[in-house]
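Ferritin-like domain-containing protein (Nannocystis punicea), 484 aa
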Amino acid sequence: MSAASSSLACLRVALLHALGLGAAAGCTRPPLGDDTATATGTTTTTTTTSATTAPATTSVPPDPTTGATTTTGAATTLLTTATTGVDSSTGPVTTTGEVEPATTTTTSSTTDDTTTTTSSDETTGTTGATCRSVSALGDELMPTDLLEIPGCEEFNASDCFDYVRICVPVPDGLQSCDECVPDCLGDLPELCKDFGFLVACGPLPADGQCCHVVQYSWNCQDGRPFLVEGTARTAAPTRRRDWLADATGPAPAFVAGLDPAARAELAALWTADALAEHASVASFARFTLQLLAHGAPPGLVQEACAAQLDEVVHARLTFALASDYAGAPVGPGPLATDDALGGPGDLAAVVAAVVREGCVGETLAAAELDLAARTCEDPALAATLRRIAADEQRHAALAWRTVQWALGRGGPALRRVVAEALAVRIAAPPPDRLDPAVLRRHGRLPAGERVALAAQCMRSVVLPCARALLDDLAVARPTTDLPV
């Protein structure tokens, strides 16, 4: 088993243990610097039609209707998923998952480091029939495009989602689109059942058809962003020393050995990370207020406050790294927080954000930082990455426990919210400007490896944890309360 697969297996076990759904013992991480740790963009697939037992297995509660028990390990996906895309080094990979009740036969991906790929927007669904993604059903739009569409300008579009306009004929027996409000789409039989979407606005009459703009695919991944009105906010960098951590950074000779262009690029990358960590302080502050607003137990509130302080430390550590590479002090300017408490504050909205930003974003961040530490060649820098990775794992566990608490309070209606929030498009980051070997040596994963790791993490950590959590709820509640 590669270091990446072993690390992800341990992460999954730890998160299941945090949810009270598995034991945390028996998980040994490979040593730092293991030369098998590098993920690749190579994409191949082997499928099976039955549950597969793999190392480090975790038992999932039996299906209440069939009594079947499914097991998960490093090589087994518990959720039925549809995955489309291209080579992760050159383009996007789409991984979506929708939680379904367990059955005795499950279509599973049985590879550790691979993703299923196709060259078009069509994919083979879990039943064997060809189905299509949401994006293939209409014209793609940018979030700003919604401001120009009459009837859509009030929708709170976000840079973290994708949008598409889908038009259908006026339904039989109706004279206008107004007669099929709230939407005229009905069932979309060719749509893969694993793709969830939300109607953003419509119906809008156009050329004898009824058009809707739909929102789908969360694609803001690593860490917990500070989103206000759909846009991630960070402070601007400035020259200051008070945000620099009193910690040992990479050896001066390690940094000095870089050419000026490489050093400047790494300084820019660490600065962007530091500003994101700084913004996460505000995100956790808002999260704490949301927990209080919904009567959360003190344990969750206390952990949210602790996570906020963790992010202060993370920001100081990464600002110190940015300063080491820049050769000058780097810190944050003022962070705009106006309107940060606006937008929907109901429990469903909070849960959807926690799933996307915590259960997905921070789980992926923990996995990426852990692997980056293994490929880094400076011991002090690797230690910093391991420290932040451990904190991000705790933050991910907090997110999963928050969803577990909310499901127990909000009931079955929140199951669909959780499933839809797990529809994630793993978009390729901007192309690397440095040689991959230089990036790995300095604690950065190349873009293609980040995408491949994220896809693998979704399959082997996030989706199995979601399935185990919702199956646990299914066991605790009558089956008639569960959505079809």
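The two ends are 37 Å apart (CA to CA). The chain has a mean pLDDT of 75. ok done for today
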